[in-house]
Amino acid sequence: MRSLIAAAGSFVIVLGLAAPLAAATWHIKADGGGDAATIAAAAQAAAAGDTILLANGTYSGTGNRDIALYTKPLTIRSESGDPALCIIDCGGSASENHAAFDIRAAGNPSIVLKGLTIRGGYGSSAGAIYITKYSAGNVTVDIENCVFTENTSVWAGGAILVMIDCTVNLTGCSFIDNSASTGGALVQAEGSFASVTACTFSGNHTQDGGAVYFGYAGTIAATGSYTSCSFLGNTATKYGGAFYAESGSPVFNGCSFSGNSADLSGGAVYLGGGMSMTRCSSIRNRALSDGSSIYCAAAQPIQITSCTFVADSLGGSVIACLSNVSPVLDRTLIAFAKSASAIYCGGGSPGTPTLTYCDIYGNQFGDWTGCIAGQAGINGNISLDPRFCNLTTGDISVADCSKCLAANNDDGQNIGSDWDVGCSCAQAVEPATWGGLKSLYKK
What we know:
Elements: E1 3-4, E2 13-14, E3 17-18, E4 24-28, H1 39-45, E5 51-54, E6 57-59, E7 67-68, E8 74-78, E9 86-89, E10 101-105, E11 110-114, E12 117-119, E13 122-123, E14 129-133, E15 140-144, E16 147-149, E17 152-156, E18 160-162, E19 167-171, E20 174-176, E21 179-182, E22 186-189, E23 193-197, E24 200-202, E25 205-208, E26 212-216, E27 223-227, E28 230-232, E29 235-239, E30 243-245, E31 251-253, E32 256-258, E33 261-262, E34 269-271, E35 275-278, E36 281-283, E37 286-287, E38 294-296, E39 302-305, E40 308-310, E41 313-321, E42 328-330, E43 333-335, E44 338-345, E45 354-356, E46 359-361, E47 388-390, E48 395-399, E49 421-423, H2 434-437
Parallel strand pairs: 4-5, 5-8, 6-9, 7-10, 8-11, 9-12, 10-14, 11-15, 12-16, 13-17, 14-18, 15-19, 16-20, 17-21, 18-22, 19-23, 20-24, 21-25, 22-26, 23-27, 24-28, 25-29, 26-30, 27-31, 28-32, 29-33, 30-34, 31-35, 32-36, 33-37, 34-38, 35-39, 36-40, 37-41, 38-41, 39-42, 40-43, 41-44, 42-45, 43-46, ...
Antiparallel strand pairs: 1-4, 2-3, 47-48
């Protein structure tokens, strides 16, 4: 039977008021043993605030997938805390759709999912978890230390679709090899909010937004922040190899974008609105049409601060901007792009980017050219080899003599995303020729 831990007996009278019973913990086993036969049975029987604790094992079949969580605040977590040992296998397919959780909340419940692997979901909307508002109120879903892999959505959100003013907080999660028509791993839609921290998005695939699609199909834009996240090797057959923002202004802090690609525009990020990006790096991303790293399609505020863009390729330029788009770059480094210039401004009314304390160097199709011509040598802008320690291995720390370090330039400003000295000048590996640069790019 379920274990119920109450504080100091069944109830306590304090100042004439009865203290509430403590929340219960339901122990569930993959073989059907425990306090309930399945996860769904426990969720149905549990009271608000209870915890469903999953023993190690693989949970599959009826009752362990398509689990409805509607009105009650609940926590569902692995007993071990190790997602590799506690797996929900949805067993979905094109002929038989199954996801893990269907969260259509009424009221304001808070759902916590922790230490789980969710795999093999397949659905028309959301491969693994569907989150939306069913009636008045807003649901908050906290997902921590979970792995989402090999989930598929026919429409949107290969792993997760969050909609209609709902909130999802993702911490320490991994999204690996998920796919959808839109948003290979995650879709934020219709006024939803996401706080995504220390998550990895790897090998996800879609048409638009290889890993994330932001602001989809709603009159109110999504909002969200992405902090210390890694976007690795995600792909889009059209736009936004890692991230597609249809509208709104996503916030990136300390994120890395590496090896993402788009067949059209925005090898790493496609922007249909604004953006704030701080202490982020873009390495070896590519787009076949425009913007090997970032494509800016709307005249919205775009602020890029203390970022490094290096060895991005194709796309004509690392950052491509349409009419009237004038991004602001501060203490940012753009270097060694292949078959691309640093920044391009196009359309009938080209914008005028503003750069301060930036280093633009070694880009094959031009550094301080086009819409940023004339800004070299003013406002602290330079064009000098950053002296990376070992770019071939992806090490973008710089040598102790680099002019990108505050101690070595006249303005006392650190330029780029990595401000640590990683090697001495004698150790730094410098790709001095285009022959030496070949190893930095995918074929």
